[in-house]
Every structure is written in C-alpha cells, then in structure tokens.
Request: fold
Amino acid sequence: MDKKVELDKLLDSIDTGAEAPVSEPERQFFYMAKCREWTKAEKARLGRELTFHVQTFGCQMNAKDSEKLTGILEEIGYVETDSENADFVIYNTCTVRENANNRVYGRIGYLGTLKKKNPGMKIAMCGCMMQEEHVVEKIRRSYRFVDIVFGTHNIFKLAELFYESLKRGKMVVEVLQGTDMIVEDLPSERKYPFKAGVNIMYGCNNFCSYCIVPYVRGRERSRKPEDIIHEIEELAANGVVEVMLLGQNVNSYGKTLAEPVSFAKLLRMVNEVEGIRRIRFMTSHPKDLSDELIQAMAECEKVCMHLHLPVQSGSSRILKAMNRRYTKEDYLALVDRIKAAMPSISLTTDIIVGFPGETEEDFLETVDVVKKVGYDSAYTFLYSKRTGTPAATMENQVPEDVAKERFDRLLQVVTEVSAQRAQEDTGRIEEVLVEERNEQEPGLVTGRLSNNLLVHFPGDTDLIGQIVRVRLDECRGFYYMGTQSIR
Ligand code: 5AD
Ligand code: SF4
Reply:
C-alpha cells in the first residue's frame, strides 16, 4: 500500500481523546491526528482549503528537513502553495554566515504584515538560526506574532508544537540543546519524484574554528545502515533513480554506531539496491577520506563521478588555525590518489577568503591549489564572523576591503579554471538524468551529468526522470548545450 494512504488510515484509527503516547513516532502520529481534527473544522468554517508554504534557507540538510516539515503539514491537512500568502508559513533558517540571518529578519517583518490581513495565519521559525539564544530573544521581543519557534533537534515534533500553540494561544518556543534521538518513519514529501536526499548522519564533531554548525546541529549521530537501506529501497520502489546521501561529514559515518560501519561499506550496500541508478553524497571532509572509500567509489558503478571536497584554504598555516587537521600537501596528495583511481572525476570545493590572519601569501597558496586541482566549480565565501566560534575572537581580522579584493580575484581564477575543465568534455556523449523543462527556452529540457554539470537539449517533458544519452555540443562556461544521442 502507498505510504501516505497507510499513514492516513493509521491516523484515522487513533483515539484522539486518549492520553498522548510517550514513545516516538506514535506520539507524533497522535498529535497529527489531533491537528487534523482542527484543520477539518477550520476548513469547514472558512469554506476553503488551508494552504502552507515552507521557505528554506541554506544547505541540503535544511532542504531535507523542509521535506519532512512538508510531509507533516500535508498529513495534518494543509495544501502547499508557492507564496508566503498562506495560512501556515515556516521559515527553515540557516546561520552559517551572518548575511543569512539579516535576510531572515527582514522577511519575518513582512510576514507580520501578511498576518494582519489574515489573522488566522500561523507562523513558525525553525532551523539553525533558532539554536542561537540571541535570535530567539529577538523574536520573542520584536516579532511577537510568531506562533512557533523550534530548532534543528525537534523538526519531527512540528505537529505536537502546533497543537500546543493552538491550545495555549501564544508563542510556543522549544529549542533543544542536543539530542541522541533519531526518529524514523515520519512522513516526508519529496520535491522531485525521481531523486531524493537521504540523511545518513546528523551533526558534526569537527569544530572547524570558523564554523557554527557543531553548535547548532549538535554532535555526530549516524543512522543505522539497515534503516538507510530500507528507506532507499522504498524510494526506489516509488520511482526514485538518484539518491544523495546527506551528512555534515559523511566520511566519518558509522563511527558512533553500536556496530560501527564505514562509509565505504555503506556506499557498497547502497550500490546493491535495485532500481537506484545514481548515488551522490555530501559533504566529505578531506581528513577522513580513506583509501577504502576511494576504492569503493571507483568500484561502485552507480556512484557519480563527482566529489565535493571542501579545501577552505590552500595555506597550511591557515588550515591549522581553522582546525581542519590537514595541510596543503596532504590535500593535494589526496587529490592525486583520487584522480589516479578515477581519472574522469569532477572535483568541487568550498573556499573561505579572509579568515583571520590570512596574508597575501596565504591567499596565493589558495589560488595555487585551485589551479593545481582544476576544480569543476568552487563555492567561494567571504569569511563571516560567527559569535561563539573560536575564530571570532582571533586577532588580525582581515579588513573587509582586503578580503573583498581577494575574493574577486579568486572568483576570476575559479571561473577560468572551471570553464577550461568544462571545455575539455565538449563533444563527448554522456548519460544525463533529465530533471526539468527549461524555463527560458521552450522545447528544451535540462539534464544533469554524472559530474553534476547541466546540459540543455531539445526534448519532450516525457523524458523528465529518465536517464538518456546526450552529446555535449557546445560548452557555455558552467553548462552545455546538447542533443540527444541514440548511440
Ligand atoms: N564564514 C564563511 N564561510 C563559512 N562556511 C562555514 N562557516 C563559515 C564562516 N563563518 C562555509 C564553509 C563551508 C560552507 C558550507 O560554508 O566553506 O564548507
Ligand atoms: Fe562546519 Fe567543519 Fe563541521 Fe563542515 S566539518 S560543518 S565546516 S565544523
């Protein structure tokens, strides 16, 4: 039976007059059933559907959490809409860099004006930003119209918190500082029918000195391999052909399990799942990337020829201050081993410019790494000071104009290097997963190559979700124009 139909039946059978169960996920099912009674009455009262909108900021982990929030809201009886003019709006926030926070505040104010016009509107704030005390204080003080505030550890409790807010009629705040709990079997609504993200672990133990993630996402916790495989088998049965295994640091997957399993072993298990055609994963920390994993990647035919391997800086001195626990030489040697095992692999990276104490020489080391590795693309960030991290109190913070000037220079090198890389593959015939209709040019569809680049080519929307062969006719910097090949 379809999972949604099954859950609907289960919720229908729940006695909502009884005491709430203590164990999970039963407790959440109970609250979903209770909220569903409320939405039913509300819809009858208004004589219309109730709508919701989840706005995601930040990374793939947040995108995945938003799918879970969406799954719960749909179960409760809301229908999705793509505008914030909705009956229930959730902001799933990111706090990795300061400018992300400022963007969110501006938009909460806007939600307040919408709520004035629709007083029944519910507003919830969740995600990484809410794990910071000063943020929650600001919301309590300045945005009193917000109904629910929760963090990264209790995403699964949305229905319970919502019910609580209905009962109390005032702001409900529940931000946990950590958890060992991983709740399985809750609903989740996928954005694409043919590809899906799958959490394999939560949290991070690395404490890179600039990064706030370990403070807001908590300690590393891995899901059991059997739960992961079971989820992927179900996805495959529902038509998913590509999975992205998600974790802050997938290379240390499984170390904390009662029966430890390496990420390389997990990859081999996923490779065996029938129906899955492509496997991706992110993010890898260079210090934990083992030879066992390189071998598994090379041998598993479904693993895509793409590796995101954040370098952050090319200067060994800065890397030490960042607490990355590898040197420039270690990183370059690792890249050599990867390329020796997989000559066609595409490498991408994250780089921070303007970390405290970074000199022109340090910066040039970073440029040198970009040129030596030949990244297919690189996400470049200006260092952003995050209160509570060790780097925030380091001396020699780099002046903004110096950092900005370096950033622009780096971007230019990155663009040149990646354009050159893409040019090398022009003329080849490659397999692509067709993802969507091209918005700009009717008649074209867009597909993703194994190496993660996009190609636009003439084709019918029937092709969406299929893997087809496409000739890369022309390279336009970051993407290709192509034609479908029957060969
Ligand atoms: N400033 C700038 N960039 C940061 N990142 C993480 N923390 C910061 C910060 N304080 C970048 C890193 C990481 C990516 C997800 O965000 O490059 O890999
Ligand atoms: Fe942040 Fe480093 Fe953990 Fe990545 S590995 S989330 S950069 S602390």
